[in-house]
Amino acid sequence: MDLKYIGNSINRVDAYSKVTGKALYPQDLYYENMAFGKTLRSEHPFAKIKIDTSEAELIPGVLKIFTHKDIPNNEHGVLHKDQQIFCDKIVRRIGDPIAFVVAESEKICEVAIKKIKVEYDILEPIFDPIEAMKDDSIKIHGNSNILYHYKLRRGDALKALEDSYFVANNTYRTHSVDQAFLQPEAGIGYVDDDNKVTVVVATQYPHYDREEIAYCLNIPMESVRVLNTNVGGAFGGREDITLQVHLALAAKTLNRVVKCVYSREESFLAHSKRHAIIMKYSTGVDKDGFLTAIKAEIIGDTGAYASWGDNVMRKAGVHATGPYEVKNVMIDSYAVYTNNPYAGAMRGFGATQVAVAYEQQMDIIASELKISPVEIRLKNILRVGSYTATGQLLNNSVPLEQCLKSISE
C-alpha cells in the first residue's frame, strides 16, 4: 500500500504563515467603526453584590454597559450551567464577570470600569476542599460542595491490605496550574450581512461556543456563527467560554463591530485551571513484590464552578492504579466546589495528577523490599492478557515491558 502521510515528512498547512508572522489571530483583526469592550471583574472570592453603572454610563464615548439585566438566559457551563455571564447577586471567585463596558476606545473602557460602583457584602470564603466536603461547611452552590463522586471497586481491597506484607500509606498533593498559552483571549463580534451574530475567536470548541451563545441570547442556533482563527495555544484552557457571549451580546444589541483583547493578567483571571488534587493512597504488596491492593481517596478542587470537573475526576479515578495490575481496588474520587479559581480541562484530564501518587508509591515499596524501581514495575506492569482496575481485558498492543527494559539497559 502506498501511504501518503505515514513515514513521510509532511508540511503543516499553517506552518509558513505562522513562522513568517502572517498568520492572523483575533487581536490582529481591525474593522472600520469598531468599538471596544472590557470586563469588570470581582475583586473578592465570595460576596453578595450590588452594582451601580449610572455614573459610568454618562462618560462620553461609552456606548453601553452590559450587566445581568441584559442577558435573556444568564447561565452557562460545559457540563453544569452553574456560571453566570454576568453575576447578579453573588460572586464566587476573584475574577467573576460583573459587567461589560463597550465604548469607542479601549481607554474610555478603562475609565468607565473605574467609575462603576460595586458594593460588596463580604461572605466567608472556603478554600480547602477537605473542609468544603464537611456537612457543616459553607456552601458554594446548593446543599453540598461535592459536585461529583466516582467509585471504583474490585475485589476486597480492605481485606487484601490487612493481609499484605507491606503497605505504603501516604498523602500527595498537586497544585493548581494555569495553561499559560502564549495568546491571551481575544475576539471580535459583529452581525454579518445575513443577519447572523458572528464571533471571531480562538477556541477549542466552536460548536459548544455556538450553543452557549444561542442559548444565552435566546436566539436560534442558525442565527449564530463562530469563526475559529489561528489558536495561539490552548491545552484545555479554551474549552470554556470567556468573552464569546459578551461579544455576541454587544454586537447584536449595538449593531457594531466590537473587539475585546485580554491582558495576561485578565487571562489568568478568566479561564479555568488544572485541578489541584489531594491523594490519600494505601498500596499493599506481598513479600515477593506483587501488588495486592490499592485504596485511594482522591479529592479534586474544582474551584467556584464545575467546568469539566466530573470528567476530570472520573478519569483520575479510572487511572488511579496507573499502568499496574492489581486485583483488589477501592477508589473514591471527588470534585469539590471551593472559592478558588475554577478548574477544568488541561492536558491529561486527571490522569496526570494521580501519576504523582502511584509512581511514588512504587518507589517507596521498592525501597522497602530492597529491589530496584525497575524490578518492582516489571513485576506489576500491565501486559497482554492483563485486566485493568475497571475490568478491561488488554488483548493487544501493551508494550510496557519492552519500553521499561529498553530504557533500563
Quick overview:
By secondary structure, the chain is an alpha+beta fold. Helix content is 26%, strand content 25%.
Explain this structure to me?
The model has no long low-confidence stretch (mean pLDDT 96). The protein is α+β, with helices and mostly antiparallel strands. The chain has helices at residues 15-19, 54-57, 106-115, 129-132, 157-162, 206-217, 244-254, 264-270, 309-318, 351-369, 373-380, 400-408; strands at 35-41, 47-52, 62-66, 90-91, 97-103, 117-122, 146-154, 166-174, 186-191, 197-201, 224-228, 258-261, 276-285, 291-303, 329-337. It is 26% helix and 25% strand. It folds into 2 domains: 25-123 and 179-270, Alpha-Beta Complex (Aldehyde Oxidoreductase, domain 3), CATH 3.90.1170; 129-177 and 273-408, Aldehyde Oxidoreductase, domain 4 (2-Layer Sandwich), CATH 3.30.365. Strands 3-5-1-12-9-10-11 form a 7-stranded mixed beta sheet. A 5-stranded mixed beta sheet has the order 7-15-14-13-8. The protein is globular and about 80 Å long. α6 packs across α7, α9 packs parallel to α10 (351-369) and α10 packs across α11 (373-380).
